[in-house]
Amino acid sequence: MSTQAYEITPKDKNFIGWHLAVAIIALAIGSLFGPLQAFEHAGWDLYKYLNPLIKSYYQGLTLHGVLNALVWTTFFITGFLTFTVIYGFKRPLKYPTLNLIGFLLMVVGLVLAAIPILLNEATVLFTFYPPMKANWAFYVGLTLVVVGSWVEGWGFFYTYAAWRKENPGVRTPFIAFGSIITMLLWQIATIGIAVDMLTMLIPWSLGLLPGVDPQLSRTYFWFTGHPLVYFWLLPAYISWYAMLPKQVGGKMFSDSLARFAFWLFLILSVPLGFHHQYVDPGVPPAWKFIHAMLTFSVFFPSMLTAFTVVASLEYGARQNGGKGMFGWMRALPWSNPSVAAQLLAGLLFFFGGIGGLANASYNVNLVLHNTAFVPGHFHLTVGTGVTLTFIGISYWLIPYLTGKKLWQPKWAVAQAWLWFVGMIIFSNSMHILGLLGAPRRTPLNLAPYIPAEWNSRLFQVGIGGAILFVSGAIYLTVVAATFWSKQPATEKVEVPVAEALQDPALGPAWLDRWTPWVVATLALIVLAYGPMLFDLIKNIALTSPGFRVW
Amino acid sequence: MSAQEKMHVDRYERNWMVASAILLVLFATAVSIAAFGMGIQVPAPEQRVDPRTVASDPNSPWSNPGIREVVAGEKYDVYILAKTWQYLPAEISIPAGASVTFYVTSMDVQHGFKIQDTNVNFQVVPGQVSKLTVKFTKAGTYNFICTEYCGAAHAAMAGKIVVSP
Amino acid sequence: MAKKNSNDEFRPQGTVAILVIFVITLVVLWGSIYLILLGRGGTV
Ligand code: HEM
Ligand SMILES: [Cu+2]
Question: Which pTM does this prediction carry?
Answer without folding.
Answer: 0.96
